[in-house]
Amino acid sequence: MLTQLRDVRGYPGFTSLAISRFISNVGNGVSPIALAYGVLSLPNSTGKDLSIVMAARFVPLLAFMLFGGVIADRFQRNRLVGGSDMIGSFLAALSAISLIVGFSSTWLLALMGALFGILNAIWWPAMSGVLPEILPKEKLQEGNAVIGLTTNFGYILGTLGGGILVSTVGAGWGLLVDAISFFIAGAIVWNLPIIGKVKDKSPGIIHDLAAGWKEFISRSWVIAMVLSFALINMAFESMLSVLGPLNFNDPVSGPKQWSYNLAGLSVGMLIGGIWVLKVKIGRPLFLAMILIALSAVWDFTLAFDSHIIFSVLASVISGISLEVFMVTWNTSLQSHVPEESYSRVSSYDTLGSYGIAPLGIVFAGPLAMHFGVNTILFVTGGVTLVASIASLLVPSVRNLRND
Asked: How far is CA 292 from the centre of its chain?
């Protein structure tokens, strides 16, 4: 593993990118805990309010995602990523101050989330194309794995610290840590030593979108995975954003218990990242989707109200599955999709994969209030299990290789 680390570290900009992901994800680890329990701490708030706030950033993210992909393929990607992070830090800071001072509301937090979603629509496709501008194709799996490791180290620190911060000094201070981490990470990425490639002059946005769509639909394995993850992400985001915090809803012990679960998820991702860094996977998506099917154990463990030890262990399994998938998926796209249209294909991927996730988040709270949190957790676990297995019925998913 140390050999792979030394290899990728030698490429200009890689170490700075890894550091920025660590710093950003310290804040990202704190953010979901702080935001969820910040909403639940508002007067008369319910699961419905939590659903509104958590879904708010997804709608504009998806609405502007294709536009973000076109921008990312036209302009210097690290500047788009850094600029989005730094602007987003001010939105997170406003949410934090509103909770600290006491003028916050469900709709203010939802508005800040929606604006952040617009920035994220630019950030996401641009970020996915930064690493291929630093590393050659044969180093992408190692690079993605190392970035995943630094990301998960940061996320573990953030989730454990987030639970303590929220339960002791309050959710607002947790969001303030998130805002600071975003600004620092954005400044680092903005100054990466990347000289943007000269882009061919495009006939226009419609032409760019059409060209990206042609690349996207030309691969059956991409279509199959996006359709499967439309359902998987709807279930996962509902559990992660709404059902998990509602399952641990005690104002004193809840934030810590949920933070232990999120830390377990990150520890699992760390383990998965170390493992995938050391091995060459012959059929990456075949293995990844088997693991994603196994990740449903986290939903089921929460649904049975198992002891915290068992839910944390289940979250570790889910984390391993998620990280192996993320590394293999990013490497597969980066290996098989031309660099000049990569961000547009990535934006179509994100739009399809997360297209119905907001519906899951919006309805998760009200459905949990009506049928019970445990019942809806059984549903999310079942959806993940069935959708994962269904993807393996497609031969190109089972047989894809990144040689």
From this structure: 15
Distance in angstroms between the alpha carbons of the first and the last residue of the chain: 20
Lowest mean pLDDT segment, chosen from 144-148, 227-231, 253-257, 282-286: 144-148
**Residue 115: its pLDDT value, please?**
94
Structure token pair of residue 218 = 């030309």
Tell me the average pLDDT across 360-373: 92
Which stretches within 191-219 are classed as H helix? 205-217
Residue with tokens 């226009």: 204
Largest CA distance in the chain: 59
Give the residue from 358, 72, 109 showing the smallest Cα distance to 241. 358
Cβ-based burial of 255 (10 A; exposed 0-12, middle 13-18, buried ≥19): buried
The answer to whether 81 touches 189, Cβ cutoff 8 Å, is yes
CA angle 227, 286, 402 (to 5 degrees): 100
Model pLDDT for residues 30-47, shown as the tens digit of each residue: 998 899 899 989 998 888
Helix (H, G, I), strand (E, B) or coil at 295: coil
The C-alpha atoms of residue 304 and residue 288 are separated, in whole angstroms, by 26
pTM (two decimals): 0.77
* Residue 312 near residue 159, CB atoms below 8 Å: no
Whether the CB-CB separation of 155 and 20 falls below 8 Å is answered with no
CA distance 29 to 26: 5
- Rounded to whole angstroms, the Cα distance separating 80 from 83 reads 5
The burial class, CB within 10 Å (0-12 / 13-18 / 19+), for 280 is exposed
Residues 317, 315: Cα–Cα separation, whole Å? 5
- Where in the chain are the domains? 2-192+204-399
Q: For residue 389, what are the contacts with CB-CB under 8 A and spacing of at least 6?
A: 289, 293
CATH superfamily for 2-192+204-399 is MFS general substrate transporter like domains (1.20.1250.20)
Banded pLDDT at 195 (limits 50, 70, 90) = low
